[in-house]
Amino acid sequence: MDTILKTEKLCKSFSNAGLQQHVIKNMDLEIYEGDFTVIMGSSGSGKSTLLYALSGMDKPTLGKVYFGNEEISGLNNDQLAVFRRKNCGFVFQSIYLLDNMNVFDNIMTGALVVQKNSPELVDRVKELLKKVGIEEDMWKKYPNQLSGGECQRVGIVRAVINDPKILFADEPTGALNSSSGQDVLDVFTDLHKRGQSIVMVTHDIKTALRGSRVIYLRDGGIVGEHRMQDYEADDLAKRRESLQNFLNEMGW
Amino acid sequence: MNKVNNKKAINNLALSGIKVNIKKYLVLIASVILTTLLFSSLFTVGGSMLKEIQLSTMRQVGGSYHSGFKYLCQSEYDQIKDDSELKDINYRIIVGISNDKRLLKTRTEFNYFEPDNAKGCFCYPEVGKMPEKENEIVLSDLTLKALGVPEKVGEKLSFDMTIADETKTYDFVLSGYYRGDPISMAQLGLVSKAFQEKNAPTKQKPLPECGGNDYAGWISADFNFSNSFNIEKKTIALIKRTGIRDDVEYGINWAYVGGKIDPSMAIVCGILLLTFFAAGYLIIYNIFYLNIISDMQEYGLLKTIGTTGKQLKKVVIRRASFISVIGIPIGLILGVGVGALLLPIISDEFVTVSIDKGQLHMNAWIIIGAAFFSYITVLISAGKPCKKAAKVSPIEALKYTEVRGKDGKPKKKMALVVLSLSLSIIVLIGAYAFITGFDMDSYIGNLVIADYSVQDATLDNPGVYDKQTEGVNKEFLDALEVQEGVNEIGNVYISCGAQEFNDETWAKFEENFLSTEFVKKKLENDNASIPDYDVNVDLEYIEESKTIEGNTYGMGEFAVNKLDVIETIDGTDKIDWNKFNSGDYVLAIRCTQDSGESLNYFNPGDKVQIRSHDPKYAKKVEKEFEGKIIERESFEDAPVKEYEVYGVVDIPFPLGMQMYYAFNCDFILPESEYLSLYGERNPMRTLIDVEESCEGKFDEWIKNYTTSVDSSLAYNSKESVVEQYKSFGDMIALVGTIVSVILGLIGLLNFANTIITSILVRSRELAMLEAVGMTGKQQKMSLIKEGFVYFLWTALVATVLGTILNCTLIKALVDGIAMFTWHFTLAPLAICLPILCVLILIIPVVAYNNLSKKSVVDRLRVE
């Protein structure tokens, strides 16, 4: 598999009230194209920080991040924004839809940042919305008129509308109930099956089961890695057992 | 249920909210400061001007006491002096009046004053002391000047004084002096108790028992009540309560009765008050509203943990009070300072006092009033947002979003910002249109008809009712004759009174003038303020008396040439001086309504009779008036001469007697004819044209003459009118600019706050957009576009409302003032809009740059 993202000696520190907190320490990591990489670890292990550093949302303190052959750690804010809109999609735990826009406009806003308005684009938005189970009668609704799961599915459509090379997700089911969470994860699985590279942060084993590669972090460093076959519903018990064993090994 | 004392918790919540968001509240404090500044400067100027007008009236009346009794004897004074309702009481005793040639223009009354009474009557010596020895006296600087005595304590002087019908020369030593005010009806001289008792002993018997016209020795008691409300009622009650005789003469101080406030000034103050209130409300409401919106999740959280709506209201009100406690005192100090700076400039444009003009008159009410208005503005502004915070349900509050328009901007907030931004521009448009409406030529034309016009100082002084109409004395005219560069001199004489005609003329006058609808309409308009006014009563009175109000002028050729000729007997609009001067003709004035409509009293060719008012024919006659016998001057034995009306003219305002009567059936005779009919007398006014090359020298001479040689004379010159114009224009410009700048600051503060708050509130939204690839440049552009929408709306609203204001209120105001000419202008827009546009481009960029110092992730994490 080709490497899509790579870090070299990645460090990220935060300074809080004069105290330096080293969240990511000298990390070397490769993310492969078409992989569904899941980042796990206990609270404070640096999962989200790593995700944001990988995606160009935040700049590393030291070290380098490569997207393909291009180093993105040296880009300025505007260059990073351009990089993100060309290559990345984001799904957040807190969803962050624009409250003053309806479902359709929320997605269109994400799209129009990158591409021009066209009938093809509109058709694609409609197709994607239908695919994630958001039917036409909901398209004119505002975020506060939707359930959490529905909002997150809209969020995923917004994240993939520009055909990102890589989709980043930070605890996408964290704020959802079990049934909504499963619906959302089905969307991710479906995307992965179609070849979408995904990097997802989670602390939920059910979510992690959907991935093909699990990386475990502790104290800002990678302490283990677990590779799985692509997710199939029928081998769920075996899959769960092997992942559980890995996580037990890691001290989960 | 136990009552919980949660005051401390509420206070903590209120204060901690401010501490955490101090920047947000600084804007609010600044807006409270500006609002208070507007109110307090208005109150300072308004309060001081009112006090100045009141002082001016008091000085005219001669005292600051609420009320007074005249002609009391000692026992009557003793009867009232201990009344418990009186706050204070003291007295003076009338001694005599000046009867000295030098004091003809400076009438001086002599009294014994109790020291406190002297203070209340504005004549307590500022230099020296009250008179104690018999020959000691205190005089005003004006009396001293008229007497030619230097202002020096210990100076010996003597003059003629009439005491009880006996005129004698008295010798005095000056024990002190004070600054006299020329607007006072009479100057006061203070003699000692010893002098008074010797020459005008205090009366011991009540007036009705004494009889006669002897005023000397009577006590004038002046007193104050605890407050100035209903002083007439209180005075009458005092008469009844103390049992003093019912017919005691009492005087109420007009200064406390009111009615002296110029209605146009009251309207201007009212408009300013409302504008300031609206401006203050708009900004404070808007900022509070935005603050509450941005804190809505905090309020939701507080509600989820059990805080009641009432407690949330208290939190908001505490915050409002806290910012008021900081903002109002600062605003008061600044406002009083601005007011004090403006006061002399504004006061200068009004005829009030001449002593301590433009002085700051602070009192607690100015401070309390301004603070009260500001606090009320804050409370009212906080009221609605406060209700909003209290009403919202916890869950709604937690995920609170505003109601927005199609473009995603909150509609109501936008309307408020646009209104507050527009308001300052609209006020500026109004002020500018007013200032530029000032028409120098028409102003000069209205006030100056010759290079110079010399008259008695009282003549054109609207504050003086007792005008001297024969003020231009021979000494001045002689001195004028020998001045270099004087081209022309024109005298204007006047005899005030009424016109009477023979039966034939009266019948014609009645038919052509009195019986017309025009006259009815004029009387009704003039008396519109009198309830149940019956025009027929007045008409019947005129018809019965067969006289009509009207002055007779005498004018030389130079002055006649300045008249506005309407029509003449020759059918031209020119007066043939030689024909007019033949002694057979008279010019008649026409009657003009406020609306500009006019009607001739007499037409060219009509015959009129003019009776001489030569003092040598004057005699006293007793006449019954409203059931009483009154004594009046009659000229019934004076000769009457018939003239033919040569033409109908208007007398330019600066040429005539500047007094208003219902009817001015004035006639103008040639100078020589006038003097032969009315007898030799001094002119009312002398017009002078001077060669341009000699103007500077002449100006110096006349200035010196009217100040050092004869201060009773005053002069108007083209130069002084231009100066006056400039200072008047400058005053309007200054006040207009200050008000506009403050309102502009409020508008900009509001705009900046709206944009900044909107960016802060939407920081996560913006971060999200940045996360999905929107660059900073794109975001700034979007914010600038948003600001530009505000700008476009502001331009539209300011243009539309400014145009409406300009074409209605300003037009009405400007057209109502003689020397103003209205013309349409929106020039301030051309100045303001580019500035606003630049700020609209800068503020979002600065605010965004500040925000983007934090990483996208940090901004996304902000709840």
What's the helix and strand layout?
The complex is a heterodimer of chains A (about 250) and B (about 850).
Chain A: E1 3-16, E2 19-32, E3 36-41, H1 47-54, E4 62-67, E5 70-71, H2 77-87, E6 88-91, H3 103-112, H4 119-131, H5 148-160, E7 166-170, H6 178-193, E8 197-201, H7 205-208, E9 213-218, E10 221-227, H8 236-250
Parallel strand pairs in A: 3-8, 3-9, 6-7, 7-8
Antiparallel strand pairs in A: 1-2, 1-4, 4-5, 9-10
Chain B: H1 7-20, H2 22-61, E1 67-72, H3 74-81, E2 86-98, E3 108-113, H4 115-120, E4 127-128, E5 136-140, H5 141-147, E6 156-163, E7 166-178, E8 187-191, H6 193-199, H7 207-210, E9 219-225, H8 231-242, E10 249-252, H9 254-257, H10 263-294, H11 296-304, H12 309-347, H13 364-391, H14 394-398, H15 411-436, H16 440-447, E11 452-456, H17 474-481, E12 486-495, E13 498-500, H18 503-514, H19 517-526, H20 535-545, E14 547-549, E15 552-555, H21 557-560, E16 564-568, H22 577-580, E17 585-592, E18 598-600, E19 607-611, E20 619-625, E21 628-634, E22 640-650, E23 667-670, H23 671-678, E24 685-690, H24 695-709, E25 713-717, H25 718-761, H26 763-771, H27 776-816, H28 827-851, H29 856-861
Main sheet characteristics of chain B: 11 strands, mixed
Helix content of chain B: 40-55%
Summarize model confidence as the mean pLDDT of chain A. Answer: 88
Distance from first to last alpha carbon of chain B: 36 Å
Determine the mean pLDDT of chain B.
Answer: 81
Show unreliable segments of chain B. 403-409
Percent in strands of chain A: 25-35%
Radius of gyration of chain B, in Å, reads: 35 Å
Structure characteristics:
heterodimer; A: 252 residues; alpha/beta; six-stranded mixed beta sheet; four-stranded antiparallel beta sheet; 8 helices; globular; B: 863 residues; alpha+beta; 4 domains; eleven-stranded mixed beta sheet; six-stranded mixed barrel; 29 helices; 25 strands; 52% helix
What's this, in brief?
The complex is a heterodimer of chains A (252) and B (863). Chain A has 252 residues and is an alpha/beta fold.
